[in-house]
Design goal:
Elements lengths: L2 H9 L10 H24 L4 H15 L2 H9 L2 H14 L10 H17 L1
Helix pairs in contact: 2-3, 2-5, 3-5, 5-6
Length: 119
């Protein structure tokens, strides 16, 4: 098990009895890999499931807090990190100095404008 995975295990919430369900941890940890894979697919083909990325980032942030940024930074390459950085900036997890992808920023801005117009 990597040091990163060990750190995630330390942060991962436990039950009231102090037990951590290993299967739940593994499923939640795979969310990091899913995000990176979706962004790699976007870089290779242009296809992007932005809802999947946003939902997984929110779940991971609820579980691991600000440590999500460290894990993603360690797991993703430069191009993937720029795509993920746009999502993390959109969700307020990082500031504007973080690496971002202009096309994804435009997509998320459009997404935000449409959501506000419906409200």
């Amino acid at each position: 098990m990597s040091n990163l995975q060990e750190k995630c295990r330390e942060i991962y919430p436990t039950t009231k009895c102090g037990y951590m369900f290993v299967d739940d941890f593994k499923a939640d940890y795979r969310r990091f890999q899913t995000i990176v894979q979706v962004c790699r697919k976007y870089n290779n083909s242009g296809a992007l499931n932005h809802h999947l990325v946003i939902n997984n980032l929110i779940v991971l942030h609820n579980l691991f807090g600000e440590f999500v940024v460290d894990v993603i930074t360690d797991m993703a390459s430069g191009e993937e990190l720029a795509v993920i950085g746009s999502f993390m900036y959109f969700l307020g997890f990082v500031d504007e100095s973080h690496a971002r992808n202009n096309a994804i920023d435009a997509l998320l801005l459009d997404f935000e404008i449409r959501a506000k117009s419906k409200a």
